[in-house]
Amino acid sequence: MRPWLISMLLLLSSVAGAWAGDNLQAFPPAEAGQVRYVLELPAKDEESDFRVELLVGKTVETDPHNRYFFAGRIEEETIEGWGFTRFVVSTLGPMAGTLMAVDPDAPKIERFITLGGEPFLIRYNSRLPVVVYVPEGVEVRYRIWSAEPHIMPMKRG
Description:
Blueprint: H1 3-21, E1 34-39, E2 50-62, E3 68-70, E4 75-78, E5 85-88, E6 95-97, E7 109-114, E8 120-123, E9 130-135, E10 139-146
Parallel strand pairs: 5-9
Antiparallel strand pairs: 1-9, 2-7, 2-8, 2-10, 3-6, 4-5
């Protein structure tokens, strides 16, 4: 073999070994005032049949009757030089909710209140971690959604 080819193969194997040892090396540490959450997904046979829903919010004390949400949004950013996606919530806005009248003496309950809007679904990919940066004091939770294996036909209208 040619020396340059051997050198290239050694370099590629060392990079692959480093990636296997630390799959977060592409993701920078959290900045001051931020926290980095990491989700490692287990491998699945048909990963295209699954989605991950990211839920960002806080556990707060509220009345049990009204619906609440926080202003804000999850933004996708591509990591320069790597091409991987990270998810960032810069600020968690004020909490808002419905205005249903509630007995002022009714006991409060603790609830996880999330960002408002549509569910934030991302592709299921067990080869890369899901990395989310949020302000300190904010939590990140997730749900796994799955599609039925049976595909149903539609009728013509």
